[in-house]
What does this fold into?
Amino acid sequence: MTTPTPHWNRNATQWQLLASPLRPCAEDVALYSAGLQRWRSQSGDFSSRVLLLGVTQELRAMDWSVDTDLLACDRSLAMIRAIWPLAAFGGAHAAPVCADWRALPLPAGSRNIAIGDGSASALATLADLRLAAGEIERVLVPGGALILRLFLRPALTESLELVAREAAAGRIGSFHAFKWRLLMAVQRDANEGVRLGDAWDAFRANFADRAALARQTGWAPEAIATIDTYRNADGRYCFHTLDEFAAAIAPAFSLLSVDYPGYELGERCPLIVARRRA
It folds into this structure.
């Protein structure tokens, strides 16, 4: 995971401008709840000692049981300060901590559920994903659940030129879906992810006239402006295929289910439930 500033500090100030698929919508939350209940039925474990990877308000506000103990770990203090106070919580205890997922401040076997939204892509490289998976394995009990919404790149990577043509022709409904397609097109190697500043440069080169882009697409100018958090940013996202993700976590976890939402780009945003190996 790369240093969270300045990108995540900038992101914290505009978080409420982001929308699906960058943030979970009601359909995603329903998939999270269904996946959690499916794991509970299979495992017989109905307790809730939860590790939240990040401070995603939609996940904190899920219908947790009244005895739930939730600890949210996020490396960006700015995100914690901006996002944590926004969500309700119906469990017994919830707290945030500023921490790296590759070195969690938790005892071994202290949680039975780890849950996150887009967390795998926030890890800059496949090597970081493997390290985080090992650390999550350490803090989960045997048989514990790992529940994540993934952001997957397609098996056949789109070209930047294709994404630009699709956008200019008005064939991408949401600017937020466009951003994911842009980033995935710019990424060259899943081992290294994509530098956010490079994605901003590619956007500027193809769409210098933002007013024209807004007219062509119907995208709100303030939504288009959210891409400026990427400007000169050295932070990285990493987009995997499902096979790459499954292989990276395989030493620690076995996949139980993969469910796809029906919204735009939903085929790249599945909800996975995995079980910690004994």
Observations:
- The chain is about 40% helix and 20% strand.
- The chain has a mean pLDDT of 95.
- Residues 29 and 62 are 7 Å apart (CA to CA).
